[in-house]
Write a structure and sequence with these properties.
The protein is an alpha+beta fold. The strands form 6 sheets. Strands 3, 4, 7, 8, 9 and 10 form a 6-stranded antiparallel beta sheet that branches. It folds into 3 domains: about 140 residues, no CATH class; about 100 residues, Roll (Pdz3 Domain); about 260 residues, 2-enoyl-CoA Hydratase, Chain A, domain 1. The N terminus is likely disordered. The protein has 18 helices and 23 strands. A hairpin with a 2-residue loop joins strand 5 and strand 6.
Length: about 525
């Protein structure tokens, strides 16, 4: 399969995103559906069938990560679904079962804003398996889940080594709670005790296992109709204790889903000279329209032009960058550093039944999906790795090609800071760099999600119309591990640490990871 012109696809992708933004003003929330007990059971059975026949992860998660068996729990969840007394309760039960099946890789109930974009894309996609009206029906469930099942505090929270810290400053009755303040107690309980409490006394009891992102966010679950917020004890950076009431906002706080995020992102890329011979680039997200990605590239290019080639060491910081547009990192963080074309390979696997059950036009479109941005040069079928049965799996070796473009004025060593918050396209970046050997990865394993043979797919439940995202294939890392389960490993492992409180030179030079790169690497 030959790689296609990336600029053409980038223009089309940017146009698609622009259409999505226009649609943000349109409300398409579907009407409340009326489901029978049989309807609700059918959706649980559909999820179990999908897992058994198509999921690349369920058996690996049970074997390698200790997840419960989805087959063993199927009858219990089918019964819970039948007995649900409301759509909200049924949704929470269904999400509980889905979260077991989607424990690894991209897996989520599609939020409203994404449904808008998929609805528009479906108008131009003759092979789409989901109709425009079905996307509209799914919006009802998305709103019910994200707005009615979750809450958020007035500040983001970051979790490091099982400790919770505020990630922005917050003012309460004239008193400032600075960024980096530790949360000691919630409603009189330690953080671990509070999570145990909500796990057994809220809709989280529907989850058959711990869900990392919910546990890491801590103050995120709606505890009931009369719930208004939390009594929290903070340990401030000056070692004093402060007690305050933290009000709960309705729904998930997801600024990246808002129009303002796309239009006001001048601080997404930050360039700082740490020392006369050391440069630093911080990229918070790979999201944005084409022109914003180009703006970041121009900012980086100017940074190197002003340095006049004096840097011998560069630190690229993508910690807690959850991903975004697939062509951000090749065009901004890889190709401008290359002097010659680089090829690298990886192996990806998919269940045979997925390939045989999908119609050929749908498969061809899926195969094109990842190729548009992944700089694919060739694909060939190969023998399965050890532990995978060739009767049930097909594996492909994909060769990708990176060509130099818009060369930066930099010839030194590159060190990339990664952590558990790096996922999706940011994991693609780390994974590709590791295979190419063009930089040194420093920090912690990423959260996983590298691009394989197929892009993510949409899975629609037949009765309720809920639409989820799941991954149909898996990526094998150079060390033989599965990327979606274990992420990309750094070349140099460091202890967990908070990201700097600000990105001034003074604060960056206090960061333990940055000091390690400057002084020891």
């Amino acid at each position: 399969m030959e790689w296609q012109n990336s600029d053409t696809w980038k223009n089309r992708f940017s146009l698609s995103v622009a259409v999505v933004v226009v649609l943000l003003a349109v409300v398409i929330t579907g009407c409340s559906p009326h489901l029978t007990a049989q309807d609700r059971r059918r959706d649980i059975e559909f999820l179990a069938h999908w897992a058994e026949n198509y999921s690349p992860f369920v058996e690996l998660n049970e074997k390698l990560k200790g997840c419960p068996s989805y087959k063993f729990l199927k009858p219990q969840y089918a019964q819970l679904a039948e007995e649900a007394e409301s759509n909200k309760e049924f949704l929470q039960v269904t999400y509980g079962y889905f979260s077991l099946i989607g424990q690894s890789g991209h897996a989520y109930l599609i939020p409203e804003i994404m449904l808008f974009g998929l609805q528009v894309a479906g108008l131009f996609d003759k092979q789409s398996e989901i109709s425009s009206g079905q996307y509209q029906k799914a919006a009802y469930w998305a709103k019910l889940f994200y707005q009615d099942s979750f809450v958020h505090p007035p500040f983001p929270i970051v979790c490091k080594e099982n400790k919770y810290f505020t990630d922005n400053q917050w003012r309460y009755k004239g008193r400032t709670v600075p960024r980096g303040s530790q949360i000691l107690k919630v409603n009189g309980m330690t953080c671990s005790s509070y999570f145990d409490y909500i796990k057994h006394n809220t809709w989280l009891c529907c989850l058959p296992h711990d869900v990392d992102w919910i546990e890491e966010d801590l103050l995120v679950v709606d505890e009931g109709e009369d719930f208004r917020g939390w009594d929290v004890d903070f340990l401030l950076p000056d070692e004093t204790i402060f007690h305050g009431f933290v009000p709960a906002g309705k729904g998930l706080d997801a600024p990246y889903m808002r129009l303002s995020f796309w239009l006001k992102r001048n601080d997404n890329c930050i360039c700082v000279e740490l020392r006369d011979d050391i440069g630093y680039i911080r990229v918070k997200s790979f999201w944005g329209f084409g022109k914003f990605i180009e703006q970041d590239r121009k900012k980086i290019k100017k940074f190197f032009e002003n340095a006049g080639g004096k840097y011998t060491k560069l630190i690229i910081d993508v910690r807690n960058n959850s991903g975004g547009i697939p062509y951000y990192w090749p065009d901004n963080l890889v190709r401008p550093f290359l002097d010659e074309t680089v090829r690298y390979k990886h192996v990806t696997g998919v269940r045979r039944k997925f390939m045989t059950d999908k119609e050929k036009p749908v498969l061809e479109q899926l195969q094109m999906g990842a190729s548009r941005f992944a700089y694919e040069e060739s694909i060939k079928e190969v023998d399965p790795p050890q532990g995978f049965d060739g009767k049930e799996w097909i594996f492909y070796e994909i060769t990708r090609k990176m060509e130099p473009q818009n060369r930066y004025n930099f010839k030194g060593d590159i060190f990339i800071l990664i952590d558990e918050g790096c996922g999706s396209a940011t994991d693609d970046y780390a994974n590709a760099v590791k295979r190419m050997g063009c930089a040194t990865l420093v920090g912690r394993n990423t959260g996983g999600g590298a691009a394989g043979y197929f892009p993510m797919i949409t899975v629609r439940l037949p009765a309720s119309g809920m639409i989820f995202v799941l991954e149909p294939d898996l990526v094998i890392n150079p060390d033989g591990s599965v990327d979606e389960l274990f992420g990309t490993a750094p070349d140099i492992i460091l202890p967990s640490a908070l990201i700097p409180t600000s990105f001034t030179k003074e604060d960056l030079l206090k960061d333990e990871w940055i000091k390690k790169v400057i002084n020891d690497l």
